[in-house]
Amino acid sequence: MQVAVLGAGAWGTALAGHLATRHSTVLWARDRALVESLSHSHENERYLRGITLPASLRYDPDLASALTHGATEDALCVVAAPVAGLRALCRNMRELGVVPAHIVWLCKGFEADTQCLPNEVVAAELPQHASNGTLSGPSFAREVGQGLPVALTIASASATLVERTVAAFHHGAMRIYTGDDVIGVEVGGAVKNVLAIATGIADGLGLGLNARAALITRGLAEMSRLGVALGGRTETFNGLTGLGDLILTATGDLSRNRTVGMQLATGRSLTDILAALGHVAEGVRCARAVLALAEAHGIDMPITHAVCRVLFDNVAPRDAVQALLSRDSKAEGQAWRSLFATLEPCLTPRFERHDCHRIRQIQTSIARSHRQTHAAVVRELREHRVRQAPGFGAEHKPVTGPERVPEKRRRATRGEGEHAAHVGRFGFQECLPVRMHMHLCVLVVIEAGAAHLGVVERETERFDQMQAGARIGAQPDHVAGVRRNFRFDQYNVEH
After folding, report:
1. What range does the domain containing 23 cover?
2. The one catalytic residue among 192, 330, 397, 408
3. What percent of the chain stands above pLDDT 70?
4. Which whole number is the average pLDDT over 263-269?
């Protein structure tokens, strides 16, 4: 496979070295002097000193030439530029007329000026490009350059891109996991950098391991709240790109963001710290964007707020810590219960609270492109197997355990492939396919910008077909099911 890596920083160099052991790989750098040094010594003395790169790795200062190497249908282009340079690089691709068929980016963070995630930047600059995604996870460039084990996640809506990325990277000491929650992966990769600054401050002040553990766990809660509000999935933040990346960045001595926090705790100025660092610390760049998004969505992120006060408002680190400690006590999970309390008045009386063991909030931003919105909606509907309606295959087993089905529904459970129905306490007939866990109600929140999309209308019709196929009710909207409680009517959605 031909692979082009755009960006010869520490991470781009380390991954290019890994790729070159199996594939024809070209590493692009805009600095000609750096390219000459790499070609001569096979070592990136500026960013990855002491790591010898494979002799087969080639270097190129010409962007058009490097893009051409990774532009074919059977090739891969890896963008290793920081978030601040991603938009300009995508524009250069378009202006040069060489847009690779498959693009995967490595950057973590939010664009400072627009508060956009990397996938939103790519969608804005390359609107017709479909085969792209993000490669992320807990990783230090130096360890990857040394050939030590590492696990990463490729997230994309494109199955082709996922397969190509796995084929390129999954070998040697590198293991690649796959997923499609691009937003969740990117939010985790961005917020963990801000939280690493917080743990660095705590470590620098000598607050101990108890404080570090508290910051990591409460920071994970902040990350999850913001990520779900932006459209990510809760489980993503408990995986490699959420909790995994947070633990590494918040505790590892090679972490640039943690180093910034530790230096701030000693009283050094941010300007001096960044000048001496010599590398990009994305947590500093995107901290304001994270806080602005949290405030716009009504998300409480006290640790992030404290970090921003230290970084930009000249608040002493010890004072910021004291402000966190002086916050009122509250129960863990309170924010989740508050979300339910906010949503409950909007639900019809037929929504039974004891059925709501779990609520998944899926939000699609109006600002996001229709292509992304369409992919997000389809992904979630497929996850719940809506596309298999109205027929249910034999692989769907009935819910048989008494702990899973409320008493009044357990009496009505039938055989495999059939439906369970009963007359509930409101006097109407309820029906759920037994392939679904009957204790689970899923709340799908779709913003007004997505209501008119064809995918929503088509999937709404599929719900009707499923209910009609079960021969329940004279009209589909008069029987139980998703449409009874949460109508996809555009006017209701807008209000």
Report:
1. 2-180
2. 192
3. 67
4. 94
E strands along 372-465, which residues? 419-423, 429-433
Q: What pLDDT shows up at residue 112?
A: 87
Tokens matching residue 312:
């930009």
Count of domains forming the chain: 3
Query: 387, exposed or middle or buried, with CB in 10 Å at 0-12, 13-18, 19+?
Result: exposed
In the structure encoding, which two tokens stand for residue 234, read together?
Answer: 């809760």
Three-class secondary structure of residue 11 per DSSP = helix
What are 12-22's pLDDT values in tens digits? 999 999 999 99
192 is catalytic: yes
Of 221, 229, 241, 95, which Cα lies nearest the Cα of 156? 241
Q: Please give the Cα distance from 117 to 95 (Å, whole number).
A: 22
- Look at residues 149, 180, 211 and tell me which one is the last residue of a structural domain: 180
pTM for the structure as a whole: 0.69
> Given pLDDT bands bounded at 50, 70 and 90, which one contains residue 486?
very low
Residues 322 and 360 in one domain: no
Q: What is the residue-averaged pLDDT of the chain?
A: 77
121 plus 188 within the same structural domain:
no
- 3-state DSSP assignment of residue 80: coil
